[in-house]
Design brief:
three-stranded mixed beta sheet; 4 helices; 168 residues; elongated; CBS-domain; alpha/beta
């Protein structure tokens, strides 16, 4: 998680560099004990510049301290409800002392659901980063289908057939 975690002492410039490298569009801000203090997104940084902050200002001045997070005991239903929000693209996972232990992205969560993988907030979600959900829609002359579950032993599809299509 080193590529998404920063210390509270970072400057905006250091955050921009880290965002450029990680390509995640967010960073998690921790103190020296690895306790989660806040989050920052590329949008937060754009808004900070519009307010007059400079690249030399510390991230502490612009970070978001009111954010959603999960614990290991968070229910599947709660995770589903949180990811329904279009404002939430990731959820940090912390222990009872707010120490950061994991992070899950909305896309990673969708891959887990698509491939019918057991829900476990301790899993290494990075292994789902290279999976592309865009490949789950398949175009055909008669219409298209979209996979809803794709496992090694089963596949479930939604099939759409265009009206008045000649198949010969």
């Amino acid at each position: 998680m080193n590529n998404i975690v920063i210390k509270i002492t970072y400057t905006i410039k250091e955050c921009l560099v880290k965002l450029q490298i990680n390509k995640k569009r967010f960073l998690l801000i921790v103190n020296k004990n690895n306790s989660l203090l806040g989050v920052i997104t590329d949008g937060d940084l754009r808004r900070a510049f519009l307010k007059g902050f400079t690249i030399n200002d510390t991230i502490e001045k612009v970070m978001t301290t009111s954010f959603e997070y999960l614990t290991i005991n968070t229910s599947f239903n709660k995770v589903c409800e949180l990811f329904k929000s279009e404002k939430i693209d990731f959820l940090p996972i912390v222990n009872n002392d707010m120490k950061l232990i994991n992070v899950v992205g909305k896309k990673q969560f969708h891959v887990i659901l698509l491939e019918n993988i057991n829900f476990d907030l301790t899993c290494d979600f990075r292994k789902f980063d290279k999976h592309t959900l865009e490949h789950e829609i398949y175009n055909r002359p008669w219409g298209f289908y979209k996979s809803t579950i794709l496992t090694s032993h089963a596949q479930s599809k939604i099939i759409t057939v265009f009206p008045m299509v000649k198949l010969y």
